Amino acid sequence: MSASFGQEFLMPPSDETQVLEPMATDAVPFLEADETAVAFTDTEMVYNDSPSWKVGYDRGFFLRGVQSNESFELKTNMRLQFRYLAFSRNAESWTNNAGVVLPIRDRQYFDIERARLVFSGHAFSPKVTYQSLFDFDTDSRHVASLLDGWGAWEYRDKRLVHFGKRKVPGTRNWILGAFDTRMVDRPLSNEFFRPSRTVGIWFTGDPDPSTRYELMIGQGYNTEGLTPQEFGNNFATAGSIYRDVIGSYGPLRPTDFEYHDELAVRLGMSAVASIEGTPGRQLEETDFLRLTDGTRITEPNALAPGATVESFQVYLLAVDAAYKYKGWSANAEYFVRSIQNLSANIPVPAVGLQHGFYTEGGFFVVPKRFELNSQYTFVTGDQGSANSYATGFSYYPQGVPFLKMSMDGTYIDGSPVNSTATNILVGDKGFLFRCQWQALF
């Protein structure tokens, strides 16, 4: 997968000919922004004063070119997660904090998650990068949409400013690409606490090989799919940082696919602060957050009879740690979330602090081929607690991380989150089996 091939067409020699070194990008963990791109109109190449252009494959199909000392690249990647799942309930219903009785249903189906088409590269200079990521899921009514879209400028060596739509950097597992999760998908506790995507400005950087940071000021904690009329006037701020305190941890993926001969330990922290909604108005922006029993905080009667929450302030802190050593690996993250200054049509009691964590680990029985994994998650608060226990394996048939088959089984003791991406629905109490094939090219 690391090799490249393509056909290069040479023009007459020119003093403007240049070779540009590859530049890494954090757009997609798998992708690398290579040296040049190509401009084209319809089916004909445009190469005025251009010494050469190239078409081929290098961890993605690319077009590259240099024209008048300006460098261009367009790279295309595709990704697919196809899975089978079956959920067997051990309770028929659950009752939320508003007193509403809701059913728990058995289910089984095939699911396409994160079928994605990614366009990325740079324009004019390798310091000006971009990405557009289109997503298709069967659990989103089979509709394709723009998930991420941004442009970035490297204003200083390995320090970039991004403009557009990206993830709010609120938890380490959320920043991690879903392709690289240890189990079939993300932990239940991460799905409960994490933010989502928003539009804003990001500052990212690698001040040294062992440290990375990401800072953001954006529209909100979770404004995915919303219009400006559906969120308030207050911005959210967020930041995340990690550092390798022992050895070199390598890629963000938690498993030791690289097989570290020496111990590597990484520590990190993430935080988000946001004012959600506007007093006196019921906005879609506030509908994402749930109490620890699974009740939406904005649901009528959720906190008191006759009360409907309209706005609040949310603060999230997450601390993470991970290690890799000779095929063994483990990682964990602790979350604490505070919901304050609730505004409702009548006075409501405080929500209280929400806590949770996950811990998971695994071992490559056959290096780069077959790994066993396990996971435990926990969420608790004034309105209830939940646990999940999971075990499974991953198999890499080609010995590369971009083609993987996974299988896991999870016991869920009352889910407080509704996450179609993980196939865990609110109120779930029972056993979930998932089998997944995924590829990235």
- Structural class given helices, strands, pairing? mainly beta
Mean pLDDT: 88
Kindly, what is the distance between the CA atoms of the first and last residues, rounded to a whole number of angstroms? Answer: 8 Å
Based on Cα principal axes, name the global outline. globular
Portion of residues in beta strands equals over 45%
Description:
By secondary structure, the chain is mostly beta strands. The chain contains two helices and 25 strands. The longest helix is centred in the middle third of the chain and has 6 residues, at 188-193. The chain is globular, with a radius of gyration of 23 Å. The N and C termini lie close together (8 Å).
Key terms:
single chain; 441 residues; mainly beta; 16-stranded antiparallel barrel; 2 helices; disordered N terminus
